[in-house]
Design goal:
The chain has 9 helices and 15 strands. It is of the alpha/beta class. It is globular, with a radius of gyration of 21 Å.
Protein backbone atom coordinates (compact mmCIF):
# COMPACT_ATOMS: atom_id res chain seq x y z
CA UNK A 1 0.00 0.00 0.00
CA UNK A 2 2.85 2.38 0.83
CA UNK A 3 4.20 2.00 -2.74
CA UNK A 4 0.82 3.04 -4.18
CA UNK A 5 0.60 6.05 -1.86
CA UNK A 6 4.17 7.12 -2.64
CA UNK A 7 3.55 6.75 -6.36
CA UNK A 8 0.34 8.81 -6.22
CA UNK A 9 2.01 11.52 -4.16
CA UNK A 10 4.94 11.74 -6.61
CA UNK A 11 2.59 12.06 -9.60
CA UNK A 12 0.68 14.82 -7.83
CA UNK A 13 3.85 16.75 -6.97
CA UNK A 14 5.70 16.27 -10.27
CA UNK A 15 2.90 16.20 -12.84
CA UNK A 16 0.10 18.23 -11.28
CA UNK A 17 -3.53 17.64 -10.34
CA UNK A 18 -4.84 17.12 -13.89
CA UNK A 19 -2.38 14.36 -14.71
CA UNK A 20 -2.91 12.77 -11.28
CA UNK A 21 -6.70 12.64 -11.73
CA UNK A 22 -6.42 11.31 -15.29
CA UNK A 23 -4.00 8.55 -14.29
CA UNK A 24 -6.09 7.64 -11.26
CA UNK A 25 -9.20 7.29 -13.43
CA UNK A 26 -7.38 5.07 -15.91
CA UNK A 27 -6.02 2.91 -13.12
CA UNK A 28 -9.47 2.47 -11.58
CA UNK A 29 -10.82 1.42 -14.99
CA UNK A 30 -7.96 -1.07 -15.31
CA UNK A 31 -8.70 -2.63 -11.90
CA UNK A 32 -12.33 -3.05 -12.95
CA UNK A 33 -11.24 -4.64 -16.25
CA UNK A 34 -9.03 -7.08 -14.34
CA UNK A 35 -12.21 -8.80 -13.20
CA UNK A 36 -12.86 -9.91 -16.79
CA UNK A 37 -9.37 -10.10 -18.28
CA UNK A 38 -7.54 -13.14 -19.50
CA UNK A 39 -4.94 -13.92 -16.84
CA UNK A 40 -2.50 -16.04 -18.89
CA UNK A 41 0.86 -14.26 -18.64
CA UNK A 42 2.91 -17.18 -20.05
CA UNK A 43 4.76 -20.07 -18.47
CA UNK A 44 6.87 -18.03 -16.08
CA UNK A 45 7.73 -21.07 -13.96
CA UNK A 46 9.72 -22.51 -16.86
CA UNK A 47 11.83 -19.33 -17.00
CA UNK A 48 12.76 -19.08 -13.33
CA UNK A 49 16.53 -19.38 -12.73
CA UNK A 50 17.14 -20.57 -16.31
CA UNK A 51 20.36 -18.53 -16.38
CA UNK A 52 21.41 -19.14 -12.81
CA UNK A 53 24.84 -17.73 -11.95
CA UNK A 54 25.50 -16.07 -15.31
CA UNK A 55 26.10 -12.41 -16.12
CA UNK A 56 24.00 -10.11 -18.28
CA UNK A 57 24.46 -6.69 -19.85
CA UNK A 58 21.38 -4.48 -19.70
CA UNK A 59 21.51 -1.66 -22.23
CA UNK A 60 19.72 1.63 -21.86
CA UNK A 61 19.57 3.80 -24.95
CA UNK A 62 21.66 6.81 -23.99
CA UNK A 63 24.11 8.54 -26.35
CA UNK A 64 27.05 7.02 -24.46
CA UNK A 65 26.39 3.80 -26.41
CA UNK A 66 28.00 5.63 -29.35
CA UNK A 67 31.26 5.71 -27.36
CA UNK A 68 31.07 2.06 -26.30
CA UNK A 69 32.64 -0.89 -28.19
CA UNK A 70 29.40 -2.85 -28.18
CA UNK A 71 30.87 -5.50 -30.48
CA UNK A 72 32.52 -6.92 -27.33
CA UNK A 73 29.08 -8.23 -26.38
CA UNK A 74 28.97 -10.72 -29.26
CA UNK A 75 28.92 -13.79 -26.99
CA UNK A 76 27.32 -12.24 -23.91
CA UNK A 77 23.73 -12.27 -22.67
CA UNK A 78 22.11 -8.94 -23.42
CA UNK A 79 18.81 -7.22 -22.66
CA UNK A 80 17.61 -4.21 -24.62
CA UNK A 81 14.58 -1.94 -24.70
CA UNK A 82 12.21 0.15 -26.76
CA UNK A 83 13.68 1.36 -30.10
CA UNK A 84 16.79 -0.82 -30.04
CA UNK A 85 15.81 -1.85 -33.58
CA UNK A 86 17.47 1.39 -34.74
CA UNK A 87 20.76 -0.02 -33.42
CA UNK A 88 20.66 -3.56 -34.82
CA UNK A 89 22.41 -2.83 -38.13
CA UNK A 90 25.33 -1.47 -36.11
CA UNK A 91 25.87 -4.66 -34.08
CA UNK A 92 27.35 -8.14 -34.49
CA UNK A 93 24.71 -9.57 -32.16
CA UNK A 94 21.00 -9.34 -31.44
CA UNK A 95 19.54 -9.03 -27.93
CA UNK A 96 18.60 -12.20 -26.08
CA UNK A 97 15.91 -10.33 -24.18
CA UNK A 98 13.71 -7.38 -25.07
CA UNK A 99 11.42 -5.35 -22.79
CA UNK A 100 8.98 -2.52 -23.41
CA UNK A 101 6.74 -1.00 -20.73
CA UNK A 102 6.01 2.47 -22.16
CA UNK A 103 2.33 3.10 -22.93
CA UNK A 104 3.11 5.86 -25.45
CA UNK A 105 5.79 3.90 -27.30
CA UNK A 106 3.61 0.86 -27.86
CA UNK A 107 1.05 3.03 -29.61
CA UNK A 108 3.73 4.39 -31.96
CA UNK A 109 5.71 1.24 -32.72
CA UNK A 110 3.74 -1.96 -32.17
CA UNK A 111 4.18 -2.92 -35.84
CA UNK A 112 7.93 -2.29 -35.64
CA UNK A 113 8.15 -4.47 -32.58
CA UNK A 114 6.28 -7.33 -34.22
CA UNK A 115 8.25 -7.24 -37.48
CA UNK A 116 11.73 -6.06 -36.46
CA UNK A 117 12.26 -7.22 -32.88
CA UNK A 118 10.14 -10.15 -31.71
CA UNK A 119 11.31 -12.47 -34.54
CA UNK A 120 14.96 -11.79 -33.67
CA UNK A 121 15.11 -12.07 -29.86
CA UNK A 122 14.91 -15.13 -27.62
CA UNK A 123 12.32 -13.61 -25.30
CA UNK A 124 10.25 -10.44 -25.23
CA UNK A 125 8.36 -9.01 -22.26
CA UNK A 126 5.49 -6.52 -22.11
CA UNK A 127 2.76 -5.48 -19.66
CA UNK A 128 -0.48 -7.23 -20.55
CA UNK A 129 -2.27 -3.98 -19.75
CA UNK A 130 -0.38 -0.91 -18.61
CA UNK A 131 -1.48 0.86 -15.40
CA UNK A 132 -2.65 3.68 -17.71
CA UNK A 133 -5.13 1.15 -19.18
CA UNK A 134 -3.30 0.71 -22.51
CA UNK A 135 -3.74 -2.86 -23.76
CA UNK A 136 -0.34 -4.19 -24.88
CA UNK A 137 -1.63 -7.71 -25.46
CA UNK A 138 -4.08 -6.43 -28.06
CA UNK A 139 -1.29 -4.65 -29.95
CA UNK A 140 1.35 -7.39 -29.68
CA UNK A 141 -0.70 -10.58 -29.73
CA UNK A 142 0.48 -14.08 -28.86
CA UNK A 143 3.94 -15.30 -29.84
CA UNK A 144 5.88 -18.30 -28.55
CA UNK A 145 8.66 -16.08 -27.18
CA UNK A 146 6.46 -13.34 -25.68
CA UNK A 147 5.70 -13.21 -21.96
CA UNK A 148 3.39 -10.73 -20.30
CA UNK A 149 3.89 -8.79 -17.06
CA UNK A 150 1.36 -7.69 -14.48
CA UNK A 151 2.57 -4.13 -13.87
CA UNK A 152 -0.23 -3.15 -11.50
CA UNK A 153 2.24 -3.47 -8.63
CA UNK A 154 4.74 -0.62 -8.03
CA UNK A 155 8.01 -1.41 -6.31
CA UNK A 156 10.49 -4.21 -6.96
CA UNK A 157 9.10 -7.73 -7.17
CA UNK A 158 10.66 -11.18 -7.11
CA UNK A 159 7.48 -13.18 -7.84
CA UNK A 160 7.07 -12.37 -11.54
CA UNK A 161 4.95 -11.86 -13.59
CA UNK A 162 4.17 -9.19 -10.96
CA UNK A 163 6.62 -6.43 -11.89
CA UNK A 164 6.89 -2.73 -11.03
CA UNK A 165 7.81 -0.35 -13.83
CA UNK A 166 9.26 2.13 -11.33
CA UNK A 167 9.74 5.14 -13.66
CA UNK A 168 11.89 3.35 -16.26
CA UNK A 169 11.82 0.17 -18.28
CA UNK A 170 15.35 -0.54 -17.01
CA UNK A 171 13.94 -1.31 -13.56
CA UNK A 172 11.47 -3.76 -15.06
CA UNK A 173 14.37 -5.33 -16.93
CA UNK A 174 16.37 -5.70 -13.72
CA UNK A 175 13.51 -7.60 -12.07
CA UNK A 176 13.23 -9.90 -15.09
CA UNK A 177 16.99 -10.54 -15.09
CA UNK A 178 16.89 -11.48 -11.41
CA UNK A 179 13.95 -13.83 -11.98
CA UNK A 180 15.86 -15.49 -14.82
CA UNK A 181 18.69 -16.21 -12.39
CA UNK A 182 21.39 -13.76 -13.46
CA UNK A 183 23.65 -12.91 -10.51
CA UNK A 184 25.86 -10.29 -12.16
CA UNK A 185 24.15 -7.38 -13.89
CA UNK A 186 26.04 -4.71 -15.84
CA UNK A 187 24.26 -1.53 -16.93
CA UNK A 188 25.24 0.27 -20.13
CA UNK A 189 23.98 3.42 -21.82
CA UNK A 190 22.03 4.67 -18.82
CA UNK A 191 23.33 8.22 -18.97
CA UNK A 192 20.73 10.10 -16.92
CA UNK A 193 21.52 13.26 -18.88
CA UNK A 194 18.74 14.94 -20.83
CA UNK A 195 19.11 17.89 -23.17
CA UNK A 196 16.46 20.10 -24.71
CA UNK A 197 14.48 18.98 -27.73
CA UNK A 198 11.79 20.83 -29.67
CA UNK A 199 8.52 19.24 -28.58
CA UNK A 200 4.78 19.72 -28.48
CA UNK A 201 3.57 19.38 -24.89
CA UNK A 202 0.23 17.63 -24.49
CA UNK A 203 0.53 18.11 -20.73
CA UNK A 204 3.32 18.24 -18.14
CA UNK A 205 3.96 14.54 -18.66
CA UNK A 206 3.32 13.64 -22.31
CA UNK A 207 5.38 15.25 -25.09
CA UNK A 208 5.64 14.77 -28.88
CA UNK A 209 8.87 15.47 -30.78
CA UNK A 210 8.73 17.79 -33.79
CA UNK A 211 12.06 16.89 -35.46
CA UNK A 212 14.48 13.98 -35.88
CA UNK A 213 16.88 15.63 -33.47
CA UNK A 214 16.67 13.59 -30.26
CA UNK A 215 19.81 14.48 -28.24
CA UNK A 216 19.09 12.05 -25.42
CA UNK A 217 19.50 8.70 -27.14
CA UNK A 218 21.98 6.90 -29.40
CA UNK A 219 20.08 7.90 -32.55
CA UNK A 220 18.44 11.27 -33.41
CA UNK A 221 15.42 9.35 -34.76
CA UNK A 222 14.79 7.61 -31.43
CA UNK A 223 12.16 10.05 -30.22
CA UNK A 224 12.10 11.73 -33.61
CA UNK A 225 9.45 13.61 -35.53
CA UNK A 226 5.94 12.64 -34.45
CA UNK A 227 7.12 10.28 -31.68
CA UNK A 228 5.44 10.63 -28.31
CA UNK A 229 7.24 10.18 -25.02
CA UNK A 230 7.10 10.99 -21.33
CA UNK A 231 8.89 13.99 -19.89
CA UNK A 232 11.87 12.40 -18.07
CA UNK A 233 11.86 13.13 -14.34
CA UNK A 234 15.46 12.38 -13.47
CA UNK A 235 15.17 12.74 -9.71
CA UNK A 236 12.38 10.18 -9.57
CA UNK A 237 14.32 7.76 -11.76
CA UNK A 238 17.40 8.07 -9.56
CA UNK A 239 15.29 7.47 -6.47
CA UNK A 240 13.89 4.28 -8.01
CA UNK A 241 17.35 3.10 -9.02
CA UNK A 242 18.43 3.50 -5.41
CA UNK A 243 15.48 1.38 -4.28
CA UNK A 244 16.48 -1.17 -6.89
CA UNK A 245 20.01 -1.28 -5.48
CA UNK A 246 18.63 -1.99 -2.01
CA UNK A 247 16.38 -4.72 -3.44
CA UNK A 248 19.33 -6.39 -5.17
CA UNK A 249 21.60 -6.11 -2.13
CA UNK A 250 19.06 -8.02 -0.06
CA UNK A 251 18.93 -10.95 -2.48
CA UNK A 252 22.67 -11.06 -3.19
CA UNK A 253 22.67 -9.98 -6.83
CA UNK A 254 25.61 -7.83 -7.92
CA UNK A 255 24.85 -4.85 -10.14
CA UNK A 256 27.38 -2.48 -11.67
CA UNK A 257 27.28 0.60 -13.87
CA UNK A 258 29.54 0.11 -16.90
CA UNK A 259 28.18 3.19 -18.69
CA UNK A 260 30.82 5.47 -20.16
CA UNK A 261 30.26 8.83 -18.45
CA UNK A 262 26.77 9.88 -17.50
CA UNK A 263 25.39 10.79 -14.08
CA UNK A 264 24.19 7.48 -12.66
CA UNK A 265 26.18 7.07 -9.46
CA UNK A 266 23.74 4.87 -7.52
CA UNK A 267 25.57 1.70 -8.57
CA UNK A 268 29.27 0.90 -8.31
CA UNK A 269 31.08 1.85 -11.51
CA UNK A 270 33.27 -0.52 -13.52
CA UNK A 271 35.29 -0.06 -16.70
CA UNK A 272 33.42 -1.72 -19.56
CA UNK A 273 36.47 -2.80 -21.57
CA UNK A 274 38.10 -4.29 -18.47
CA UNK A 275 35.27 -6.85 -18.25
CA UNK A 276 36.70 -8.67 -21.28
CA UNK A 277 39.95 -10.50 -21.81
CA UNK A 278 40.44 -9.93 -25.53
CA UNK A 279 43.89 -9.65 -26.99
CA UNK A 280 44.51 -6.86 -29.50
CA UNK A 281 44.32 -9.40 -32.34
CA UNK A 282 41.03 -10.83 -31.06
CA UNK A 283 39.53 -7.37 -30.64
CA UNK A 284 40.55 -6.39 -34.17
CA UNK A 285 39.14 -9.59 -35.65
CA UNK A 286 35.83 -9.15 -33.85
CA UNK A 287 35.48 -5.59 -35.12
CA UNK A 288 36.53 -6.30 -38.71
CA UNK A 289 34.25 -9.33 -39.01
CA UNK A 290 31.35 -7.13 -37.91
CA UNK A 291 32.09 -4.32 -40.37
CA UNK A 292 33.11 -6.43 -43.35
CA UNK A 293 31.02 -9.59 -43.49
CA UNK A 294 33.09 -11.14 -46.31
CA UNK A 295 36.42 -10.75 -44.47
CA UNK A 296 37.84 -8.49 -47.20
CA UNK A 297 40.43 -6.98 -44.85
CA UNK A 298 42.97 -8.74 -42.67
CA UNK A 299 43.92 -5.70 -40.61
CA UNK A 300 42.60 -2.30 -39.61
CA UNK A 301 45.68 -0.76 -41.23
CA UNK A 302 44.45 -2.07 -44.58
CA UNK A 303 41.06 -0.51 -43.94
CA UNK A 304 42.61 2.88 -43.20
CA UNK A 305 44.58 2.70 -46.44
CA UNK A 306 41.43 1.94 -48.43
CA UNK A 307 38.93 4.51 -47.24
CA UNK A 308 39.07 8.28 -46.95
CA UNK A 309 39.39 9.92 -43.56
CA UNK A 310 37.28 12.89 -42.52
CA UNK A 311 38.96 15.29 -40.12
CA UNK A 312 36.21 17.83 -39.45
CA UNK A 313 32.41 17.75 -39.35
CA UNK A 314 32.24 20.24 -42.23
CA UNK A 315 33.82 17.62 -44.51
CA UNK A 316 30.83 15.30 -44.20
CA UNK A 317 28.40 15.03 -47.09
CA UNK A 318 25.55 12.47 -47.21
CA UNK A 319 26.59 11.54 -50.76
CA UNK A 320 30.15 10.49 -49.92
CA UNK A 321 31.07 6.83 -49.76
CA UNK A 322 32.27 4.86 -46.74
CA UNK A 323 34.70 6.90 -44.62
CA UNK A 324 36.71 6.87 -41.39
CA UNK A 325 36.95 9.51 -38.67
CA UNK A 326 38.03 9.86 -35.06
CA UNK A 327 35.73 8.34 -32.46
CA UNK A 328 35.05 11.78 -30.95
CA UNK A 329 34.01 13.18 -34.31
CA UNK A 330 32.08 10.00 -35.07
CA UNK A 331 29.98 10.28 -31.92
CA UNK A 332 29.09 13.84 -32.94
CA UNK A 333 28.48 13.02 -36.60
CA UNK A 334 25.96 10.27 -35.90
CA UNK A 335 23.14 12.78 -35.45
CA UNK A 336 23.68 13.87 -39.09
CA UNK A 337 25.19 10.83 -40.77
CA UNK A 338 22.98 8.01 -39.47
CA UNK A 339 20.35 8.82 -42.10
CA UNK A 340 22.74 7.97 -44.95
CA UNK A 341 25.47 5.88 -43.29
CA UNK A 342 25.76 3.04 -40.78
CA UNK A 343 28.10 4.10 -37.93
CA UNK A 344 30.39 1.29 -36.74
CA UNK A 345 32.75 1.60 -33.81
CA UNK A 346 34.56 2.85 -31.95
CA UNK A 347 37.74 0.88 -32.56
CA UNK A 348 41.27 2.24 -31.95
CA UNK A 349 39.62 5.62 -31.36
CA UNK A 350 38.16 5.51 -34.86
CA UNK A 351 34.70 5.20 -36.40
CA UNK A 352 33.81 3.70 -39.77
CA UNK A 353 30.71 5.05 -41.52
CA UNK A 354 29.47 2.66 -44.21
CA UNK A 355 27.25 4.09 -46.92
CA UNK A 356 23.76 2.65 -46.65
CA UNK A 357 22.53 0.57 -49.57
CA UNK A 358 19.21 1.94 -50.76
CA UNK A 359 16.73 -0.73 -51.87
CA UNK A 360 15.00 -0.01 -55.15
Amino acid sequence: MKSFIDKGFNVLINDGVNVFVLRLMKYVILKFRRLFLKSDFGDWKSLKNTYNGKRIFILGNGPSLNQTPLYYLKDEYTMCFNRVNLMLDRLNWTPNFYVMTDDLLIKDMSEEVKSEIIPKVDYAFFPDIHPSNVNFRKRIGNHSNVYYLNTDFPGFQSDLPKCGINKTVVNAGIQIAVFLGFTEIYLLGIDMTFGDQKVKKENSRNWTAEKDDDPNHFDPRYFGKGRSYHNPTVHEMLDQFDKGRIFLDKIGVKIFNATIGGKLEVFERVNFSALFNFSQVQSENIFLSMVFKNNEYSSFDDVEKTFNTIIEAKDFNPEIDTFICSSDLGAKLIKRAVFSHIPLGPYKNKYIFKKRIVSL
